[in-house]
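pinned: reference chain
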Amino acid sequence: RPEKPLAPVPTVTHSRMGGRVSSARPRGVRGGSARTGIPPPLSSIYTWGSGITTPLRLPMLNIEVVQVSAGRTQKAGVTKSGRLIMWEAPPMGAAGGPSLPGATEQLQPQFVSRFLEGQSGVTIKNVSCGDLFTACLTDRGIIMTFGSGSNGCLGHGNFTDVSQPKIVEALLGYEMVQVACGASHVLAVSNEREVFAWGRGDNGRLGLDTLECHNSPQQVVVPPDHEAQRVICGIDSSMILTAKNQILACGSNRCNKLGLDRISSAEEPSPEDQVEEATMFTCAQSAPLNQEPIVCADIGTAHSAAVTASGQCYTFGSNQHGQLGTNSCRNSRVPHLVVGLQGMKVTVVACGDAFTVAIGADGEVCTWGKGARGRLGRKDEETGTPRPVQLEETHPYLVTSVACCHGNTLLAVK
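pinned: its structure tokens
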């Protein structure tokens, strides 16, 4: 079926973000006004980073966005009704667009939202963005990809670019339940807990015991007695969260960012206990990651974070910019509990290039690490201590989804 281009959603102009209004105010007034009778939006989408120093609300119609994803060049979301929405900024120097990349106090990029049209009868339930491509999953378990075909990351059996979503035909015999994109590779899991990988293979990130690229899905061997529940992709590495809440990982373990070093205590591992790379999925061996039930994890450029069933957050990997949240920039290969989050039950964590975002059960949004160009959602330049991000919301809200990529964050609230 021929695909139609992305249809524009009317542009909405928003003022720059201010501080969060007290959550003690009654529900139903967020973004609306009791005097004018304008109803509040069903959800709000915020972005920061790349020069946007405080949360900027993105334009969209009165729809509820339930999941978001960010890539190097794209921002995408899935609505409650199963439509794919994307936010784009005009290119540098375009009419109405900024003359310089990023943003300043006086100039914010003017984002435009667009729906993916032409997908009659297709309901999207999950989207994931790579650096230059996007993958989406339908409610029927079908994966579609579009964008750059470099490294074979579209999974179509070639390296050809595709401008509109195209079905990954090699997976039509399976019902897929989740898809995740790294910078240039993809992992997907089926309802039978089979895992497939394709795209760039450097560092063993595909878990196929090879460094080769694959332009079509290849089934991954999962260690015995482990059942895949969710897949996570980083720049040059991958993770599987198992049904028993354990971490399996492959790819680059630089600075022990995958927790593959053999660590049983708080002491640094000896050289023979350090693992620099794994080409097949391997159980995390760094305590306490191999002892605590892990319910959420994310991989940044050189560090990762994991959330336990009790709501504690552990970080591991590079700490060059304080992204581990240890109140310092001292490097350590040992996973650390983020003590600055004590008293907050963490539910979701996301990692950027050198910063971390944690979401609390009560809607708290905390960031730490490198602060340059707005990475932390406030004007701090850098901090190894978790601090809150202020959203322009006028009643209690729930964070429904968060995604980080390179120096950017995308956040959905309702």
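why pinned: The chain has one domain: 7-89+110-413. The first strand starts at residue 7 and ends at 8.
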